[in-house]
Amino acid sequence: MQSPAGVVAIARHVKPGYEAAFEEAVRGVILAASTFPGYAGGEVLYPTTKRGEWQLILRFDTLVHLQEWEESPICQGWIARADALTIGAPKVLRVNGLEAWFELPEVPNALPPPKWKTAIVSAIGIYPVISLMPILLKPITNGLPAWLTTLVSIAIMMPLMTWVIMPQVTRLFKPWLYPPEAKRSAHKSSNSNPN
Question: CA-CA distance, 112 to 95, in Å (whole number)?
Answer without folding.
Answer: 8
